[in-house]
Structures are given as C-alpha cells and as structure tokens.
Amino acid sequence: MIYAITIYGEPGVFEALPKDRQDEVMSGHGALQSALADRGEFVSMKLMPPTSAVMVQPAPSEGAAPLITDGPFAETKENFLGFYAADFKDLDEALDYAKMISSPVARLEVRPVAWAGGAISSE
Amino acid sequence: MSDWLEATFALLRPRALAALTRLFRDIDMAEEAFADACLKALTVWPKDGAPRDPLAWLLTTARNSGLDHVRKSQRRAAILSRHIEEFQPMPAETPAPDEMRDDVLRLLFICCHPELDRRDQIAIALRVVLGLSVEEIASGFLVKPKTMEQRITRAKKKISLSPVAFETPSPAERGARLGEVSLMVYLMFSEGWSTSAGPKQIKLTLCDEAIRLARLLAALFPAMGEQAALLALLLFQHARRHARIDRGGKLVALDDQDRGLWNRADIAEATGLLQKAKRTGHHGVYIVQAAIAATHAQAASAGDTDWASIESHYAALYALQPTPVVRLNQIAAQAKLYGAHHALKAMEPLAQDLSSYRWFHAMRGGLLQETGDHLSAITAFETVMALGPTALERVAITEKIAISHKNLRNV
Q1: Model-level ipTM above the cut of 0.95
Q2: DSSP one-letter code for A10
Q3: Residue B117 CA to its chain's centroid (Å)
Q4: Across the interface, which of B10, B55, B222 has its CB nearest the CB of A71?
Q5: pLDDT reported for residue B141
Q6: With DSSP H G I counted as helix, E B as strand and the rest as coil, what are the percentages for chain B, rounded to 5?
Q7: Of A21, A93, B305, B319, which cross-links B299 as Cys (Cβ 3.0–4.6 Å)?
Q8: How many CB atoms within 10 Å of residue A123?
Q9: Nearest to B245 by CA among B392, B374, B81
Q10: Within an 8 Å CB–CB cutoff, is residue A77 touching chain B?
C-alpha cells in the first residue's frame, strides 16, 4: 500500500533555527530518504513558502472562468510544507519511517494514497 | 527544546510587537511585555504543551504583563489614563489579517522615522521588529556595540517624540507606508551586501534579516506584486553570496563568478515569486530589477547573458526611476551590446552627476582598458582610489591599475 507522509507546520520556523538544529532536522530527512531509496521508488517534495502560492478559485458563476487570486492571507496557523510517498508493507511500517523525521515543530500525517499515477504505483 | 521555542518567538515577534505597540502606544513597553510573555512560555509550554495558537497565547500573556506594569508604575499610569479604552478586555485571539498587516506595517513605518538617519532606521527595525541583540546589530554594521547602543537609544527617543497615527490608514497612506518600508528593507540588504565583503568572515546578518522582512511583507501583502518582487530580487542576489568572494577573500565580478556556486534553491524560489509578481500587472521598480536579476540567473555562463533583455529592462527602470545610476547601469548593458567606445560616449553626460560615484570611474576605467587607452584607465582607477573604496574594492582596483601599467610597458 502506498502511504503519504505529509508534513504540516509553521513556515519559517525551520529557517529561524540555529544552524546545528537545522542540520539535525535535515539529517532525519537524509536518513529517511536513504532508507526509502534502499527499498525502491519514492517521491518527496518540499513546497516553497505559501507566499509564493497562487490560488485557482472556483468560477464565480456558470460559464465564467475560474478565479485566480494571489494566495491566502498570511495566517499563523499550520501550513502544508511537503510530503513523502512510498510503498509500505503496512501502516505500522509507514509510521516507523515517519518517526524518522519527527521534530518539535512539524506535525506529520500518515495517510494511504488512493491512486498514484506514474512510476510509483505498486499495481 | 528552547531552540525550537526561540525560533517560534523570533518568527512571531514582528506580528506580536506590532499588535502590542498599537495596544500600548509605546514600543519599549511592547518589547518588555513580549519578553515577559516569551519568558513565561519557556516554562509553561514545555510543561503543558505548546498552545494551539501560539501568537494568541503570547499576545494575551504580554498584554496582561504590560497591564501589570502599568498599574505599578507612575509613568505608565499616564499612558493608561490617555488610552484607558485600549485596556479594556482584549479577546484572546489574534487580530484579523487586515488589522495585523496594518499593525506590522505601522511598526515598520515607525522605524522609518524621517528624522532618523537611514542606518539608524535599519538598526531600530533590527532591534525592535526582528529582536536582534545590540551586539548582533553592531557586528552587522561593523561598529562597536557601545556605539550602536547609543544610536539605538537616541533613535528611540526621537521616535517617541513624534508618534505615528494609530488609526487604520487610508489606502493612499498605506501605499506610501509600504513604499517607504520596502525601500528600507531594500537598503538594509544593500548595506549588508556591501559590508559583508570582508577577507575574514562574511557577515550576512543584514542580508538575512532583510530577507526575513521581505518575506514578512510578501506574506502580509500577497496581492502586491512589488513586495513579492522585492523578495525575489533579494533572493536572486543572495543566491550569489558564495560566488562573489573567492577563497583569498577577493571580490569576484559577476561575469567571473563560478555559477555552480549560485544557490539553486534561492533562484528557484525567486523565479516562482517573480512569475507570481508579474501576474499582478503592477509595474514597479522591484519587478523590473528582479527581472534583471532573473536574466542573470538564467544565463548558464556570463557569455550566455541576454544583454539585450537586460538593456531594455534598464530602459524600463529608467522610465520609472530616472536617476544617473540607473542610466549608468543601462549603459553598462549597452557596453556588452555595442562595445566600449559606444558606452564611453554614452557615459559622458553623466560625468558631472556621478563625479564622486566610485562605480562610474571603475566602470569607465574598465571600458578604457578594453579600448587600449591604459593611460586614461589608470587615471580613472586612481579616481576610484581617491573616493574611499572598501578594502575589497581597493584590492580589485589595485590589480586593474597593475594590469594597465603592464600593458603600458609592453607597448
């Protein structure tokens, strides 16, 4: 089963950390990535800060074009920061791997992927 | 654990200080109250877990701490009597986004007090908004901490003497504030960029902090292309930080930089931001400058640079900002397109306006070298030397003078 490990947190906290703490976080990601690479294919992505986002909102009326807006106002709430996706034996295994990148400022969500196109698909 | 908390405090500080300054109408009081709240958080959060909304927690705690001080102090009793209505129960939630963005903008604008010297504006923004220590700011400006301490104290006094309006600004006023604050951020970066070039250690504090402020502005004003573009511009330039100084501590000109050392992540983010900024249809100085920086970033080598595009961007910038320095940069691009003779002729009308501008003479010297007029090149470079170049510029110019002397001997 393919699971996605999604990462939520406040954008900018990582950047505000001292260098050695940043290295600690990155070593967790490094360990996860090499462990996943050893087992096969995986996808990982780190999104740029939400300031770089543009939103495509539903069309305001029938026949109209979707509305493109310059992104949500900055909020202090958590943001979607990035994710990993890989084929895991089961949920427990996915959770074990997720623990490798756990840190005080990131909330991780482990969720099965319903459909994955492209090379990572296990079917 | 405390590192993580400190990072969170640092991130929330501008917003918190901004809201507290509106509440207390006093920067010192806002700073003290915020420090108190952070101190409390250091003991409470690890024990009870971080609150769901850390900013709201800090604001509520800081407000209560400030109120406590007010009740205990004579001086502050005066503030209380003036603004009694402000101290009525405050909801324990963060201000609405619109209010928050006006608060932060106001706090930054207060730092841009017109009676303050530009460097003092930057220093006070670093101290108050970003919470840097006096030592950190002093090292960013290459001055003694004691000197910086005095400058900040004096600047704060000036600020407190002429308060900025706390009402919601009109759109025109907001626009004016945003322009002034953006310029300060831009100049903070430039200051860092020019002082950071040192043979011992590169000090990029001011550059990093300017980028933090630019991020804050871009986050608060997502619909403003100029603020996204300002962030893009700074990131494009910052991406070159490791390539602009060689191992021996010498400045490396853009054309000679090892582009492999440019930070790809910074360039990617800047590119994304610029694309977003262009969509807004705004046409301001930062968008044009970011477009210039993007053109450099896209060139695989100096020889691949699209100088025609850069030249036309500078022409557009000159239309927005008709200064001799912009014109000089446009001519520098023309030199690549039409040669040194053309550029030297085009520079002539600027000679008087830019007579004390080092880069005018340095550029002129370089162009004269290209034409083989080494005697005149030496004169131009010596003018640079007489205009107080930085230590690193001095090294670069001395080398150029030596090259021209060598060429003279070989003739």
Answers
A1: no
A2: -
A3: 15
A4: B222
A5: 83
A6: 75, 0, 25
A7: B305
A8: 5
A9: B392
A10: yes
| d(C-alpha B325, C-alpha B306), whole Å | 21
pLDDT per residue over B156-210, tens digit each?
Answer: 998 888 777 777 888 998 999 999 999 999 999 998 887 655 544 445 688 999 9
Residue numbers in A near B54 (CB within 8 A):
76
pLDDT tens-digit readout, A89-116: 999 999 999 999 998 878 999 999 887 6
Inter-residue contact B407 to B381 (CB < 8 Å):
no
Q: Is A67 on the interface with B (CB under 8 A)?
A: no
- For B24, the token pair is 């207390």
Give the whole-angstrom CA distance, residue B265 versus residue B272.
11
Beta carbons of A104 and B53 less than 8 Å apart: no
Q: Which residue matches tokens 């340095």? A: B362
SS3 B53: coil
Predicted confidence (pLDDT) per residue in B6-45, tens digit: 999 999 999 999 999 998 888 999 999 999 999 999 999 9
> Do B215 and A12 count as a contact with CB atoms less than 8 A apart?
yes
> Helix, strand or coil for residue A89?
coil
Single-letter amino acid code for the residue at A44: S
Local structure of residue B169 (DSSP, 8 states): P
Distance (Å, whole) CA A75 – CA A77 = 5
d(CA B269, CA B263): 10
Enumerate the β-bridge partners of residue A110. A5
Please give the CATH number for the structural domain made up of A2-115. Answer: 3.30.70.1060
DSSP state of A76: S
Q: What does chain A come to in residues?
A: 123
Distance in angstroms (rounded) separating the CA atoms of residues B23 and B64: 11
Each domain of chain A, given as residue ranges in start order, spans 2-115
d(CA B108, CA B128): 9
Give me B20's structure tokens.
């507290």
Over residues B355-366, the mean pLDDT reads 95
Task: State in Å, rounded, how far the first CA of chain B is from the last one.
Answer: 69
What are the tokens at A94?
A: 């996915």
The answer to whether B121 and B210 are in contact (CB under 8 A) is no
Contact in structure between B302 and B244 (CB atoms under 8 Å): no
A19 touches chain B (CB under 8 A): no
